[in-house]
Design goal:
Transcriptional regulator, transmembrane helix, membrane, 7-stranded antiparallel beta sheet, transmembrane, Phosphorylase Kinase, domain 1, 2 domains, alpha+beta, 9 helices
């Protein structure tokens, strides 16, 4: 296999090569023999595990539940600092995740965890970071507005140095309607920020709350129309500076005033 390594063959099998590189692999008999072996292995694995793949995911493996449990374990050693943070109104995750809570987390807590989980998954993508690119803003706004049942604009954050990459529709089974929208932005250094938006119908909780998950920070906000969680590796202060512009643009027909909040 002259010039064709194992990684290239794997990328061919996964359909991740451009046409010139695919042609090069297909012109190499030894490489295509290796491709055939891998494809047979994949077919055998799919056949063997197809019944298990059709089974429903056990509740104990729910990714939302696992995300919350993981966050709680991460911050369990900071319980005393968390209590102080709550009394000071900081609202960071060290207090939010470790204060006494019922067996089922509040719905707004679940939405924040969903927002962080979706952010973690999609900001790592390159070609598939969004479902509809930012160049189709009008179509994206109409589509997501229809799916969420409320008028939703695409905030312009270019004055803050953030380019709009696009967005996608996500499942949100915990809320009526079961849908959420994710919008993604990127700065000149490649640092990404996402907005996770749902209808606010049936969601109880604070108007504003800041939470930290490891290297990411989240700022949750809600009005009578929507909830929106901003997630990014930017500092809480940077997210707060963006909040007023974001919330005012998302639902221009509704009151989008951001409550006073001390970070």
């Amino acid at each position: 296999m002259s010039g064709i390594d194992r990684d290239t063959i794997m990328a061919y099998v996964d359909g991740q090569l451009d046409q010139p590189r695919r042609d090069a692999v297909e012109a190499d008999p030894a490489a295509m023999a290796e491709v055939a072996v891998l494809q047979r292995q994949s077919d055998a694995i799919r056949t063997l595990h197809a019944p298990a793949g059709a089974e429903p995911v056990p509740k104990r493996l729910d990714p939302h539940r696992l995300a919350l449990l993981r966050a709680r374990r991460r911050w369990s050693g900071l319980r005393q600092a968390a209590v102080l943070a709550v009394f000071l109104g900081i609202g960071i995750v060290t207090g939010w995740l470790n204060r006494p809570a019922p067996d089922e987390p509040a719905l707004y807590n679940r939405l924040i965890a969903d927002a962080v989980s979706a952010h973690t998954v999609y900001v790592a993508e390159n070609r598939h970071a969004v479902e509809v690119p930012g160049g189709e803003t009008e179509h994206l706004s109409t589509w997501l507005s229809n799916r969420l049942g409320t008028g939703l604009a695409m905030p312009d954050l270019s004055p803050a140095g953030l380019s709009f990459l696009g967005g996608r529709l996500l499942p949100a089974p915990a809320i009526p309607g079961g849908r959420a929208a994710q919008l993604m932005y990127e700065d000149a250094a490649g640092q990404r920020l996402t907005l996770y938006v749902t209808p606010s119908n049936g969601v109880d909780g604070p108007e504003l709350e800041a939470v930290s998950f490891g290297g990411d920070n989240a700022l949750y906000w809600a009005n009578a129309t929507i909830t929106c969680t901003i997630v990014g590796s930017q500092s809480p202060e940077a997210l707060q500076a963006l909040a007023t512009s974001i919330f005012a643009q998302l639902t221009p027909a509704a009151s989008a005033e951001v409550p006073d909040y001390e970070l």
